[in-house]
Structures are given as structure tokens and as C-alpha cells.
Design a protein that fits this description.
homotrimer, 6-stranded mixed beta sheet, 6 strands
């Protein structure tokens, strides 16, 4: 059996969490999924700082270096407006979303912010239909420390497959 | 860059784990998924205390305040009977289930019990068929501390889409 | 309410992590999923020790005790060759994979190695198609401690449904 001493050190595959607490970061994503799926949008919005930006982009555009966002909110207030609009449409009650978020990883850290990537899959259930895969993709986020724990200052949801606009009624 | 000091404290989005250990709670759910998917039902049943109740409910009924359960077992012994019956039917061997559980969150805690919610997605594979989404939903559970770590005293699996009875051969 | 003192100790459902750190093991699987899905194969290969074996097996064969592997690489170099071959085919760019790994559990531990099982679901997106479930299954792995943290010395991906060979272009 090979032991650690037999083997030269290889490059570490990941950055540290810096001054951030990995468990608190995981809790932030757990809260993000649960509050969104329960439709508790006010509590969900509290996971963003006021100046936070929220964007949804197609992976194809990200890979091509195109800065086109399918959705872009430049502040938490704008995101709140968007969510409020969505929840008052007739479409709202007809969709149940379940977010599964995993592989939450620190990418870069400095004194104030932590860059994080994660994988997501969203499952959707429409009235009287079976649950299906809605979308999969990854997050490329920036977090800041607050008195309440880490919060999103940048959230970018990058989806793998082409999505039609009506698919984006519930935030990714 | 905004720092914590610039920003008023906002309402925390989650309860504490109280005297429970978050890591042990996560392990309970990991064990729940793994033992169920491996068909190790005796070990799986040990994750419940003897007086535990297990219910399966449709989200639609929960939202309407209807106390209708699709399945209800009022003790671990009753749950054991149900599982034993299922595993002796001809249907048993033909279904492989994979549970993915995430967003495990403390909701309320007192000296003895912890309320927890989580999201689940179950994938099912029938003989010679592709793997598909079986169901998605959430758990609304109560845990008690035991000498062996946290255990379920109440388990409620709330599924998002209408399910036909034959879909519920394997526990959610 | 039953308390711990009222109840006889039951058999614990899981092994300990031994000298391994459960959080580091979880990070290994997070890195595995993220690096694979981002196509960063060199960093992904670094998660294996040089003498590592990587196999892909059908659950049906595992259950029957048949040692047939759909894919078997007897060293990290062989795995690297395979990945290199795949990424240079015309099929490579057309598939986006998302791995969701959960229920990461210690099964057996000794001074040098840790056996771990986990559940996985892979989602696949082909050009201009919706994201779909590619496969689900479980890992049966062995890890060794290195100066860089735990690394795979044996990786076995056991898939639940019959898969056609072209489905296995991206590693599970």
C-alpha cells in the first residue's frame, strides 16, 4: 500500500475558504434552495446584500465569451421586483421547483470576498404532470461576510441547455 | 466593497441546531438514502425510534391543510411490516431507487427534538429501462437524540407531483 | 417524549472515518464532480494516485457476482489515456455533464485506506436538447491519505440501468 510519505506532493486541487467558514457557506446554499422552493421569497432575498447582482446566462454564451445575460438584475431591489412580478402572474402557482445544489467549492478568496462555484439541478412539477428535470448548470458566485454570515454579492446561474423564456419564471 | 460593519443586521434565515450536531444530522440522511437504496431495510429501520411515525403526503394536500396521508405508519413496527410486505412481492426486485437528499435545514429545536426539512429527489430504474426521475419533494421530520446519534421520531415525505399507488413500492 | 436514556443502544449504522477527515473526503467528491464537469481533466486526474484503478460496472453484474467491467483502467496513466482519447473525438464538445454526488459514507477503515460508498446521478445536455438524466448509481471506492488530502486508489462506478457504449464518453 502506498502511503503519503512514498508519494511526492501534487498540486492541491482547491483554494482554501480563507476567513470564510465552509459550513456557513454550505448553509447559505441550503437556505437558498429551501427558501426558493418553499416560495419564501422575502427570506430568500435576505440571502443577497442590497447591492447584489443576479444574472442567468447560457453556458454556450459563457464559453464563447459573450456577455449576454438572459436575465440580469443589478440590485437586490430589482431582483425583488422581478420575483414580485412573477409571483403575481397566473403562472406562479402552477410550478413547483426543487433545487439540488452540490459540489460547492471555493475558487478564490481575499479579505472581503469569496468566489464559489457549485452545480445545480432544478426539478419542476406542473399541475397534474410528473416531475421532470427543468435545468442543470453551475453557479459562479461571489460572497461577502456579514454579521449574519456569508451573503451573495454576485450570483450567476449558468444553464447547460437552451431554455425558453417561460422556463425562467422561477429563479435558478 | 460593502463590509459587515456598513450594513444593518438582517434577520437570520435559519434556526440553530441546538444541542444537535449538524454533521450527525447530515449523516443520518446520508445513511437513510444509502441503506434504502441498497435494500438494507433492517439497518434503515434502525434510523427510526420504535414509536416513530412515517407518512407520505401529496404537497397539494399539505398546502390545502388536508390531513390526508397517502401512506401512514404509526410505529416503526408498522413501517417494518410494510417494508417486509413490499420486499416479498414480485415487484420488489424490479426497481432500483436512488435517493438524493439536500438542503437539510434545522427549523425548530427544543431540549429533546429537532425539526428538520430537506429536499429529496428519487430516481428509479426498472429492468431494461433508462433511469428516470421518480419523484421530488421535501421532508418535514422530527429527530430525537439517542445514544447512537439523532434518529427519526416523525418522518413526513411530501411529494410534488401526483403519484400512482404502484409508484410507492419503495419508501420515499 | 422518549429520551436517549429510555432506549437501549442500537447498532450504529455506520463506521467511523478513522484517521480520515470526513470534510476532506466530501471535498474530494466535490472536486471530482466539479473538475469533471468543467472538463478540467488534468486536475481531475490528480485526484487519483498513480496506481489507482478506475472501473465502470453494471449493477446487474455486481449483484450477480460477475466481475465484468464495462470500462477498466488499471492505472491513472491508463485513465489519462482514455480521457485524452475521448476529448479529441468529435463527440467531446457536444456533451455537457453534471454530476450530483451525495450520501458519501465510510464503509470500512484501516490505518492506510478508507472504503467509501456514495450515490451519483449524472445529467447530460447535448447540443440544442433539453437536459436529461444520463445515469444514476453508486460509487464503491477506496481512498488513501496523501500530503494533499485523501485521494482515490480504487474507483468503481456502478450504474443502475443498461447503458449503451456511446453513453460512456464522459467518465461517471
Amino acid at each position: 500500500m502506498t502511503t503519503a510519505a512514498d508519494r511526492p506532493a501534487t498540486r492541491r486541487s482547491r483554494t482554501s475558504w480563507g476567513t470564510f467558514d465552509g459550513r456557513e457557506v454550505a448553509e447559505l446554499y441550503d437556505d437558498y434552495a429551501a427558501l426558493l422552493d418553499e416560495g419564501r421569497y422575502d427570506a430568500w432575498l435576505d440571502l443577497f446584500v442590497p447591492e447584489a447582482t443576479y444574472s442567468v446566462m447560457a453556458l454556450e454564451n459563457v464559453e464563447r465569451g459573450l456577455p449576454l445575460a438572459t436575465i440580469r438584475c443589478d440590485s437586490r431591489a430589482m431582483l425583488a421586483d422581478r420575483v414580485r412580478a412573477l409571483t403575481t402572474t397566473q403562472f406562479y402557482a402552477r410550478r413547483i421547483a426543487r433545487h439540488m445544489i452540490s459540489a460547492i467549492r471555493p475558487i478564490a478568496v481575499d479579505a472581503d470576498t469569496l468566489e464559489v462555484t457549485a452545480n445545480f439541478v432544478v426539478f419542476e412539477t406542473l399541475v397534474d404532470e410528473a416531475t421532470r428535470v427543468h435545468s442543470a448548470g453551475s453557479y459562479a458566485d461571489r460572497l461577502v461576510a456579514t454579521a449574519d454570515g456569508p451573503r451573495f454579492v454576485t450570483k450567476v446561474a449558468i444553464y447547460d441547455a437552451p431554455l425558453v423564456p417561460t422556463s425562467l419564471i422561477v429563479p435558478l
